[in-house]
Automatic annotation (TrEMBL):
Protein name: Hydrolase or metal-binding protein
Molecular functions per Gene Ontology: hydrolase activity
Keywords: Hydrolase
Xref: InterPro entries: Gp3-like (IPR043991)
Matches recorded under Pfam families: Gp3-like
Length: 297
C-alpha cells in the first residue's frame, strides 16, 4: 500500500442536491429540492447523469426525493467522515483538517499536527474553515463494493446523518451494513435562511418497512452473509486502515469540484433562492454594518 495515500471506498457516482450553473460569467452553486445521481464524468453542460438517476426518477414519478441505499460498513464513522476543513480556493488542495481538538495542517510542504480550536475560533482559517463531510452508500446491485458519495457542508445534514447512523447501529446490534435504509430529502425554514426553504439529507428505514421489520431483515442478511463466508469485520478493518494511510482524504482533482460547489455559498444557511436575490440581501446587510461603524467613529 502506498504510504501517504488515503485509500477510500471505490466511487462509481455522486449524489448531489442542486448543481453548479454559470451566471454573469461566474460559476455558482444553485440549490434544488431533489437528489441528482451523476457519474464521475463532466462535460460542458456539467456532470453527466448516472443511468440509475433516470431509473429511480421514473419510479419516484419525477422528483427524486428518496433513494434506497445500503451502507458499506458497520462502523458509523467509516460510512460518514466529518471534519472541519480549510481548502485553498486557488488550487483546491486541503490545507487544514481538524476535529475540534487536533488538526493536520499543510504548511510549506510539511504536515503538522496542531491543536484545533474549531472554525469559529481559528485565526489561521480567517473564517473560511467549514464542517465538511463525505457519506459513501451503495445504490443498486451492480457493484456491491462500489459506492456513491454525498459531499456536504450542511450542518443540518451532517448532524442528522451522524445521529441516524449511531442510532441505527445501536438498535440493530451493530448491523448497519445489513439494514435496509434510504436517503430522504427534508425541508425546513430558519431565520438564517430568511424563512425560505432549505433542504438537508436524512437517513431513514426504507419505505414500507417498520424499524422492527428492518432489524429482522438485517439479521437475516447477516446470517446469509456469514454462511457465504462474507467477513464484514475484516471489510471494516480494511477500510479503517485505508483511511488512516494518509493525512487528507480528498485528492486534488476531487476537491476542486468541492471548492467550486460549496465555497463560498454552499452551506445550508444560504436561502434556497436565486443567487442574485441572496447577493442583494447580503450586500444590504454589509452596507448597514459599514454605516453603523462609520457612525460610531
Amino acid at each position: 500500500m502506498l504510504k501517504g495515500l488515503v485509500i477510500t471506498p471505490p466511487v462509481v457516482g455522486r449524489i448531489s442536491i442542486g448543481r453548479v450553473v454559470e451566471r454573469n460569467g461566474k460559476r455558482l452553486p444553485e440549490k434544488d429540492d431533489q437528489f441528482t445521481l451523476t457519474s464521475q464524468v463532466q462535460n460542458r453542460a456539467g456532470w453527466v447523469l448516472h443511468p440509475l438517476d433516470e431509473a429511480l426518477r421514473k419510479d419516484a414519478g419525477g422528483k427524486l426525493r428518496s433513494i434506497p441505499v445500503r451502507l458499506l460498513f458497520n462502523d458509523p464513522n467509516l460510512n460518514l467522515r466529518a471534519d472541519y476543513s480549510l481548502f485553498d480556493r486557488a488550487t483546491g488542495r486541503p490545507m487544514c483538517v481538524g476535529n475540534g481538538e487536533s488538526c493536520r495542517r499543510l504548511d510549506k510542504g510539511e504536515i503538522s499536527q496542531l491543536p484545533c480550536p474549531g472554525p469559529d475560533s481559528c485565526a489561521y482559517a480567517g473564517g473560511d474553515c467549514k464542517a465538511y463531510a463525505r457519506l459513501n452508500v451503495g445504490i443498486g446491485d451492480e457493484d456491491e463494493l462500489g459506492s456513491f458519495v454525498l459531499r456536504t457542508t450542511s450542518y443540518n445534514t451532517i448532524r442528522t446523518l451522524a445521529a441516524r447512523l449511531e442510532y441505527f447501529s445501536a438498535v440493530s446490534g451493530g448491523l448497519l451494513a445489513c439494514m435496509p435504509l434510504e436517503l430522504k430529502l427534508r425541508g425546513k425554514s430558519t431565520t438564517m435562511s430568511f424563512r425560505s426553504a432549505i433542504y438537508y439529507v436524512d437517513l431513514v428505514v426504507r419505505s414500507g418497512m417498520t424499524l422492527e421489520e428492518a432489524i429482522t431483515h438485517a439479521r437475516e442478511v447477516e446470517r446469509v452473509r456469514k454462511e457465504a463466508g462474507f467477513d464484514q469485520q475484516a471489510l471494516d478493518e480494511a477500510a479503517r486502515r485505508g483511511f488512516a494511510n494518509g493525512a487528507f482524504e480528498d485528492l486534488d482533482e476531487d476537491v476542486s469540484s468541492v471548492v467550486e460547489e460549496f465555497y463560498p455559498a454552499g452551506d445550508d444557511t444560504a436561502a434556497a433562492e436565486p443567487a442574485t436575490a441572496t447577493a442583494i440581501t447580503l450586500n444590504d446587510r454589509l452596507a448597514q454594518k459599514v454605516a453603523t461603524a462609520n457612525n460610531n467613529h
